[in-house]
Amino acid sequence: MSDTIIAKKSTAPAGGWGAVWSCGQALLQNTSLTSGIQTVLKTNQPEGFIGPGCAWVDPEKTSSIEFCENGVKAVATEMTDKRVTDSFFQEYTVSELQTFSDIDLEDQGRLTAPLRYNRITDRYNEISWAEAFKEIGAELRGIKDPKEVVFYTSGHASNEAAFLYQLFGRVYGSTNFPSSSNMCHEASGIALEEAIGSRLATVRLEDFSKADAIFVFGHNPGSTDPRMLPVLRAATQRGAHVISFNPLKERGLERYADPKNQLEMMRFGSAPVASHFFTPKLGGDMAAVRGMVKTILAWDYERILTHSHIDRVFIEENCNGFESYEKALELTPWKEIEDQSGLSRDEIERAAAIYVQADRPIITWGTGISQHKHSVATIREMMNLLFIRGNVGKRGAGACPMPGHANTQGIRRMGITSDPSEEFLTSLQQAFEFEPPMDAGVDAVESIKMMNEGKLRVFMSLGGNFTRSAPDTNLTEEAIRKCRLTVSIATKLNRSHLMTGALSYILPSLGRTEYDDQRSGEQMVTVEDSLSRIHGSTGVNPPASDLLMSEPAIIAGLARATVGNKVVNWTHYIENYDRIREKIEEVLPEFAGFNGQVRTPGGFYLSNPIADRRWATKSGKAEFSGYSLPLATSAQQTSRAPKLTFTLQSLRSNDQFNTTVYTLNDRYRGISGGRKVVFMNPIDMRRAGVSKGEKVDIGTVSEDGRNRRALDFQVVPYDMPQGCIASYFPEVNVLVPVYSVGDQSGTPTSKAIPVSLSKSRRRS
Questions:
Q1: pLDDT tens across 632-664, in order?
Q2: Torsion, Cα of 153, 159, 162, 167 (10° steps)
Q3: Are 265 and 12 in contact (CB under 8 A)?
Q4: Is residue 625 part of a domain?
Q5: What's the 3-state SS for 467-490?
Q6: If you placed Cys at 403, which of 17, 125, 408, 706 could pair as Cys (CB 3.0 to 4.6 Å)?
């Protein structure tokens, strides 16, 4: 049987009937259509739950439909009728389960009881909660140095769970709190904190309706934030410009059909989203933005455009470092800008003209910006572009990073970071009357290295699928297997659970859609969206199993068994989550009135001093940066290599959310029947001597001598810059070296992997 993947150009719009059909299929495959629709209609509603998906903000006045295609699929798989019981593990050993695909593992259904791994039989077995807590607590107490324990967190966790988790870890004595953010958007927070003193977006949802230009850098909202598409399309329809900077011209930004627009759906209509497309080389965005600023300053000096100017009043009153930045611009020649960006001077000047003619521009970006070696410098350059015309702290203008998960910002604010501020730790100390360790711990990539070196012995995971989201897949799996103890809190089985330590446990939790009943009654949890609004979330369905516990309750059970109740009365907080929120308010002043505010329809925005131009930097002003362009990006280095070499980026399909893959199809790129594809410019295909449909092996050009290969990938011609190729995450994470991380951020450089291609030796 042939395993050829079908690849053809996509002509259908994003959204539309394709999304409706795909959602219906997902519901039918997991549950009844009636109950599925009833649950989905409670997604992102004031009396319902916050969808376990993307971080895009909900409008203050919600409609009956506030969900996207991937949101429906996340809900469908969570409320599936399928169950993973003890009989399943009696049928399959862990070694046998390792041969399952990620989709097959996900498709087994919901976990129903605590599980303990038996190394002798190579199987997981059900145990009681009392046994699980007692055994894990005993192991943790037996670790001599608490700093040998890692407390990892996925962005899926609620604020309440994250707050208790870091509190447990710090009472225990650990400083290691890596998160999924370390592997995607860490650079955004660092750059924004340097530039304005805040890690967060400077805009709110209503600003998008006021903006007259929206620049989308390195972001494919059709796959990662589908609910952003109608907002962008609405901007285009009212005459604003939507400008895409991305190596691939993504279908989601070309045309969109809104499933909520009944007339459009009846007519099989659609409308454009982006008005302009620029396709820089991988890693070339910083040079492109510098070219835009260089152009604008030249126009200002020469008065070529009388209506374009630098807002020197804003700069003088609000900024530091402009003179140094001007010198950096002067020292950057156009030849270097064009070569590094992959764009012509004419293209860059056209983008600059759009920017200067906009009174209210927004710049938004995704992992196409934040997963490079020079990501922090690139984001600082984008902030420079905003500063020169006073476009921060202004209605309808500003900066908007796009984190991938629904509570990525929230968990960090709750203390899930290995380098918290002294202010946070001091407040935590005062609120709970204990002395938390004050030194910094390790991030996600550092934890992989230290587990491999035997310096970290325990890996605790609050949600997520760490071995699939992390770089250097084989090395990461080796690292986890070297641990003395692994503990995973999860709703469903995933590949990380199959990488067992000497002792391994899986603790099944309630899903976001399910009731959470504690002693005081039904409980609510909260999450923070990408624009700093806090939402309450209350489940609407009965639990998948009577044995399931909530994430906060599981954490409290582990904490009681490990550190006892001397510092924290864990049971007291689990009885009523309002008590957790009262403590959050005590530690974090911006949450004043937390319990009251979160119960207002639509939730509440946290204060944003940047909106009032109150800069939280040490100088009290916004900071220009004078970073030099990289001496050479990965794309430049591979283009100059003596052997034919390319720069690879990982990307997501429209039918996946982070590491969760729903099907083998990517409707927006015309792929069906498989994910092992590599997208290439046709000219590069000829240079490499490969043809459409041919299979190739991809190998990393490694600096450490380690052999990193992804085998048997089908070549698909695609419109993208020469020298740049692309393939799906997480399949090509195996190629991302653990040593290759962003400057300052420590984030894997998943958008800049130097690779070579060879024809596959396998036969179809």
A1: 999 999 999 999 999 999 999 989 888 889 999
A2: 160
A3: no
A4: no
A5: HHHCCCHHHHHHHHHCCCEEEEEE
A6: 408
* Gap between the Cα atoms of 734 and 565, Å rounded: 43
CA 411 → CA 155, 158, 428, 707, distances in Å?
7, 7, 15, 36
pLDDT of residue 608: 85
Would you say the C-alpha torsion 500, 506, 511, 512 has a positive or negative sign?
A: negative
Task: State how beta strands 521-522 and 695-700 pair.
Answer: unpaired
* Three-class SS of 111-134: ECCCEEEECCCCEEEECCHHHHHH
Peptide linkage before 717 cis (omega within 30 of 0):
no
pLDDT at 20 over 70: yes
Is the per-residue pLDDT at 711 higher than 90?
yes
Which residues, 6 or more positions from 266, have their beta carbon under 8 angstroms from its beta carbon? Answer: none
Would you say 255 and 14 are in contact if contact means Cβ atoms under 8 Å apart? Answer: yes
As a three-state string, the secondary structure of 658-717 is CCEECCCCEHHHCEECCCCEEEECHHHHHHHCCCCCCEEEEEECCCCCCCCEEEEEEEEE
Residue 617 lies inside a defined structural domain of this protein: no
Q: Are residues 129 and 217 in the same domain?
A: no
**What's the confidence (pLDDT) of residue 305?**
53
Neighbours of 2 (CB within 10 A): 6
Structure tokens that stand for 172 in this block? 């225990």
Burial class (CB in 10 A: 0-12, 13-18, 19+), 449: middle
Model confidence at 55: pLDDT above 70: no
Q: Which residues contact 113 (CB under 8 A, 6 or more apart)?
A: 85, 86, 126, 127, 508, 545, 547
Two tokens, residue 370: 């934040």
**Edge-to-edge strands of the sheet including 604-605?**
525-528, 533-537, 604-605
Of 455, 464, 461, 507, nearest to 484 by C-alpha is 455
Domain count, the chain: 4
Query: What are the residues whose beta carbons fall under 8 Å from the beta carbon of 607, sequence distance 6 or more?
Result: 590
Q: Does residue 11 contact residue 257 with C-beta atoms inside 8 Å?
A: no
Q: What is the mean pLDDT of residues 666-677?
A: 94
Q: How much is the pTM?
A: 0.95
CA dist 460 and 174 (Å) reads 12
The pLDDT mean for the chain works out to 93
- Domain boundaries, position 61: 9-78
- pLDDT at position 764 is 46
3-class DSSP state of 726: strand
Q: Which helix (H) or strand (E) holds 365?
A: strand 361-365
At 299 the three-state DSSP class reads helix
For residue 267, with 0-12 CB atoms within 10 Å meaning exposed, 13-18 middle and 19 or more buried, which class applies? Answer: exposed
The residues near 19 (Cβ < 8 Å, ≥ 6 apart) are 68, 69, 226, 259
> Of all helices (H) and strands (E), which one includes residue 577?
helix 577-587
pLDDT value at residue 304: 55
Category of 723 on φ-ψ map: left (φ > 0), alpha (ψ -120 to 50) or beta: left
SS3 606: coil
Last residue of a domain, one of 355, 372, 406: 406
pLDDT, tens digit, 9 for 90 and up, residues 283-306: 999 999 999 999 999 998 877 555
Do 415 and 561 fall within a single domain? yes
Does 199 share its domain with 324?
yes
Cβ(111)–Cβ(86) under 8 Å? Answer: no
What would the pLDDT profile of 316-340 be if each residue is shown by its tens digit?
999 999 999 999 999 999 999 999 9
Residue 1 falls inside a structural domain: no
For tokens 């209506």, the residue is: 307
Half-sphere exposure of 427 (CA within 13 A, CB side): 16
Instruction: Classify residue 323 by burial, with Cβ atoms within 10 Å: 0-12, 13-18, 19+.
Output: exposed
Q: Are residues 414 and 539 in the same domain?
A: yes
Are 420 and 547 in the same domain? yes
Least confident of 212-226, 272-286, 450-464, 484-498: 212-226
